[in-house]
């Protein structure tokens, strides 16, 4: 169910990662080696904050129901712009409908959200979880995915004030409602969320066997390890990625994010902390 | 907001009406003279019951987000099949999203439903009305339209047992919830619904100024009026239509359905009765 | 590059083959085991002749740029109709553009055509081959594929009079033009073509290593082999298929069509003959 | 047949013109007052050169087959970027196919081209005109429009060296071939072409009755005329537009480009000269 990546760092032409990496997210759309599904061809999304945008700026979104691998518009767009913070997501849908409102990332004001995974027993719990969304946010739910509902639960439960706590509460709500409906493992997935300045990524599942998640090592360290690597010259010292699966096979570049972890990209670099790990 | 037509009669090649009439529904998609909007280009739908299908058969649906006027698949399909009962709908959306799950007709088991109009103050009442849908039907709501919610309210309130009463109750629910939210005119619209054997059409609005609706005169009568009309030879004696606006300018062919009326097409012919007319 | 199937026999609900077979063509769109590519997600096409249509009737076409695996319209259509002769094709494009005019099957009057394979050195030979199309047919070429050009070459070279000879001449033209441009192996592929009464399928490549092709065994023989097979009851005694790869794993059902062969489905059954086998 | 606009000036958020003008190009897609067709809903295109791009940079293209009026991606994109030179085009197709390869603007290296109008007797002359394209450029023709062929004729006839002369020669070729095929008025239309530094616009038809074309007055002059106009503060002193029809009703802002004229936007401002005016 889906693959994604999040970038934070010096303004970058997104095509560098989205198109040109060996195992780019576009390559993963056609053939993902670590994903739950090999093919992630049920639409995609690209969301970005413009360079030099003040705090609080809304990200821009490009959503399409076409497979990413042959989409011309995605190629054009990611080659033409620069961005210091962007998300890309390729979707493997469990079932129709395939529609733009089901494409990640989702947005609310300056917040952007994407997800790889699933809410267990979705048809049984959808109504109760949707009712738990704040009524003022309810009209903003436009698609049919569990992911969009989780995002709005997190918004309801304080995302803007404390993202780690709010996503934790949203997942606990999913688990609680799921258990009421006899769902054994109500939550599965990795999440990325951003306010335009930082990225919070989460890896957690009720079963403790979550989809893969990796972050990139610091670029200065990598330059020392690979002084001749041409590709590293495309990136600034502050560039960091969180990704569903490694974009290349260079040893040392990609570090797994542990289970039950919140990973944070912020101007000072990468760090992580335990998440729902009790 | 939208134009539609419903046909019941001898099995007919739907293109005869959908494509070939002077003011066909496809022509109306580009230029409707009586509609609230001139252009109905935000997708379309075609739903049909197969010839000789037993009672209880599900209709088949073809939905597209493209404008109907240049859609090749609609042309191909409506020229290749025969059907004794079909609906066609062209959509003028108030706003995005334009997606197949927002295209009419909607379906539940053997029931098919379409609508031209709007629920007033939709963003204010959407949540309350959605909650009034039977929880077992709730997962079947896939789009963002007021029309789909009205259909599921009618299903909740007994559509399968008494269509006229159930649609009446659903509209009264809309009016009641709307008034609670200070919406002056909560309901506007024409509706068509079918179980595969009969068609019920409704014209009603809270303000008493509903979008246009017409039915066709009996074909045998028309043959007497126009003994030389070649086009009439394409239709059987039992052919009847209910349409948002006349498909031609032949005097006597199209008869307006009055305000606050339920119009019924059934094997014996056309009849109508008062609807919410108190 | 693509997978396809062709059916001739008693009128059949196409979903029986297109959707419901174990390794249906829709399943192959997501995961083909014998195809040159695993994923055939760059659009699809379904073309059919109506039941009881007189000789010379045009087939109807449904083309979509969406992947077949989650396309709702294909499911609806193939469940709702009956047809005695239909083609289905799922596409793996070498490159953009992904557009309906590049979806197979192609049509000219009552003729329908589809292809799996490629013309070698396409960019070098495209202009010369397009010029070899009869000028009166030239405006009918609407897409960018090598397949559509081959079809129009075959039409130019007598398809309506002698399909086997005309397709042979068209491929020889491709080989001749390719060799002029130093293309080592100018033709690769399997083809199906129909006039609405019969199906001609071809397996040939300049290198002698053509994409896979199979035909189904006679249904009465299969009934003797598998007297308890429920699925066989869905098919009439005259049902025959030609397919890119087997739709099931039942031994004896699928027989490989040899290299350099023209396979013919006609009312009397299946037969084949050598094709360009010198 | 279509409406378009071209902007050259200080880097601008394109939404200012594309979305926010009273009679914006998106508004014209649904309801054009001066166009040959009222509705321009058969897809659209947006092409732009990035800010600070060196001479010779390729423009980026966004093409969609959806109507512009409800397209979310166009809104997102034109609000998120800045560009000193961009084209927008909304299409009214004479007939299918509606596909991205038929959306303007077209591109070749750093050149961008769009057109409103038609080549007369297109089906009769298409083959001859396509053959007149340089064989090395021939594989770049991907759609079915007359416009794309005219662009490639202009490229063949020296666009990169002398745009005014080359477009003139291309139109004369169209007229010559048209007359050979007994087409009375072979060319109709307005064109815009850019190399990334300047914009050349053309208004000419064989009949001398060309589709409408306007350019904007100098911004400093407009500021003197309308000292209180808030909207003018959004534009720099160098901002110039060429448009199919005025984007507002402010007197003095929009000046008609005469028949048989080449209009040039360049860093120094607007100027025009006679074109094919003999």
From TrEMBL, chains A, B, C, D:
Ranges of residues in domain Glutamine amidotransferase type-2: 2-278
Keyword Plastid: no
Keywords for the protein's UniProt record, in alphabetical order: Glutamine amidotransferase
One Pfam family cited in the UniProt record for this chain: GATase_4
This protein's name: Class II glutamine amidotransferase
PROSITE patterns, sorted: GATASE_TYPE_2
């Amino acid at each position: 169910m889906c693959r994604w990546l999040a970038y934070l760092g010096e303004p970058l032409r997104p095509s560098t990662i989205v198109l040109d990496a060996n195992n780019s997210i576009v390559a993963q759309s056609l053939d993902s080696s670590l994903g739950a599904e090999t093919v992630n061809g049920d639409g995609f999304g690209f969301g970005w904050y413009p360079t030099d945008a003040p705090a609080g700026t809304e990200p821009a979104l490009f959503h399409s129901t076409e497979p990413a691998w042959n989409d011309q518009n995605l190629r054009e767009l990611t080659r033409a712009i620069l961005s210091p913070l962007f998300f890309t997501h390729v979707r493997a849908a469990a079932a129709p409908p395939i529609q733009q409102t089901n494409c990640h990332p989702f947005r609310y004001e300056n917040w952007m959200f994407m997800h790889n995974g699933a809410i267990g027993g979705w048809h049984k719990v959808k109504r109760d979880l949707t009712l738990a969304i704040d009524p003022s946010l309810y009209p903003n739910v436009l698609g049919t995915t569990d992911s969009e509902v989780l995002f709005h639960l997190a918004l309801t439960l304080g995302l803007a004030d404390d993202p780690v706590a709010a996503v934790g509460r949203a997942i606990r709500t999913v688990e609680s409602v799921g258990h009421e409906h006899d769902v054994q493992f109500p939550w599965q997935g990795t999440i990325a969320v951003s306010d335009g300045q930082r990225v919070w990524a989460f890896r957690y599942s009720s079963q403790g066997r979550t989809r893969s998640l990796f972050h990139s090592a610091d670029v200065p360290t990598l330059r020392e390890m690979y002084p001749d690597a041409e590709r590293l010259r495309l990136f600034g010292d502050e560039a960091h990625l969180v990704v569903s699966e490694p974009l290349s096979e260079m040893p040392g570049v990609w570090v797994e994010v542990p289970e039950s972890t919140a990973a944070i990209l912020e101007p000072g670099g990468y760090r992580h902390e335990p998440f729902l790990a009790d």
